[in-house]
Design goal:
The chain is α+β, with helices and mostly antiparallel strands. 32% of the residues lie in helices and 17% in strands. The chain contains eight helices and eleven strands. Strands 1, 4, 5, 6, 7, 8, 9, 10 and 11 form a nine-stranded mixed beta sheet that branches. α4 packs across α5, α6 packs parallel to α7 (167-187) and α7 (167-187) runs antiparallel to α8 (246-258).
Length: 293
């Protein structure tokens, strides 16, 4: 009995104590609800590094501004810039002194240059031309160191009169004459027997002008052909042929072929001074230029 009473008392006391504890203490506290921020108020992320750079065209301006700011902040820099003297370039070195063994005076002219004509003379002989060496020509700036007196061209074509030429000019005339023969046989039916020569070596200016530059005739490097003589038919005179005739066609063709052998070819229509002959010469020009008119 006593034990039962004690147990009932303890149970009553425990029940009263539990009833006194607040309900909040008996149930676990619930987590407060999360607050929601509007989307338009969410902060944007920082810009990417490449987007943050300024355009390349502004960099020089920024550098200039930085340099200017540094100069403005440092007066000593301004003074140093003003006091720095301009740089004077060093004078160019003088050329070395002329060696004592080099002769002074004007440059050599075609009249004083001595060519090696050995190979040319052999070719001229093989072509069948007849030429003989004559004494050197010298007349002031005119002349030729090794002139030839040419009397006959290949195939027995003679020159009337004989021409005084350098070997180079004589070879060009001989080679051209072989083409003249072929063209004459084709267009006129006969080969020429003689070339009428108006002049070869002559100490004079171009176009016989005393104040002009020396002609290639003055160096035995040019020749004037006045016409061609045939056997059994009338001669062909340069500048006197009638247009549309075989003679005119022959003259035009041989004149054009001369441009393949001579560096200068002038004739009727070039100017008044060449209205009645073909002027042929071997004047050298830069880059191998030829004058063919």
């Amino acid at each position: 009995m006593p034990g039962t009473i004690v147990g009932q008392c303890l149970a009553a006391l425990l029940g009263a104590g539990l009833a006194a504890i607040p309900a909040a203490a008996q149930t676990p506290a619930a987590s407060p609800p999360l607050s929601r921020v509007p989307a338009d108020q969410v902060p944007l992320p920082p810009p990417r590094p490449e987007e943050a750079k300024e355009p390349a065209t502004k960099e020089p301006a920024a550098k200039d501004a930085t340099s200017k700011d540094a100069t403005d902040k440092d007066p000593a820099s301004k003074d140093a810039a003003k006091e720095t003297p301009p740089v004077t370039p060093e004078p160019a070195p003088l050329p070395p002194e002329r060696p004592a063994d080099i002769p002074s005076g004007p440059a050599p002219t075609p009249a004083t240059i001595v060519p090696d004509d050995t190979a040319c003379l052999r070719r001229l002989e093989r072509l069948g031309a007849k030429a003989e060496s004559v004494a050197p020509l010298a007349d002031g700036m005119c002349g030729a160191a090794k002139p030839l007196r040419v009397t006959e061209l290949p195939d027995g074509v003679t020159l009337a009169p004989a021409a005084t030429l350098t070997c180079t000019a004589a070879e060009a005339l001989a080679r051209w004459s072989t083409d003249v023969r072929v063209i004459a046989e084709r267009s006129l039916g006969k080969a020429p027997q003689k070339f009428q020569i108006g002049g070869s070596y002559e100490c004079r200016g171009q176009n016989h002008d005393p104040s002009a530059k020396l002609s290639e005739h003055a160096y035995a490097n040019g020749i004037d052909v006045m016409g061609f003589t045939f056997e059994g038919r009338a001669p062909v005179t340069v500048g006197a042929t009638r247009e549309g005739t075989p003679e005119a066609a022959f003259e035009a063709t041989v004149r054009a072929r001369a441009c393949g052998f001579f560096r200068t070819v002038l004739g009727p229509g070039s100017d008044a001074a060449h209205a009645n002959h073909l002027h042929l010469d071997e004047r050298e020009r830069p880059a191998g230029h030829r004058l063919c008119q």
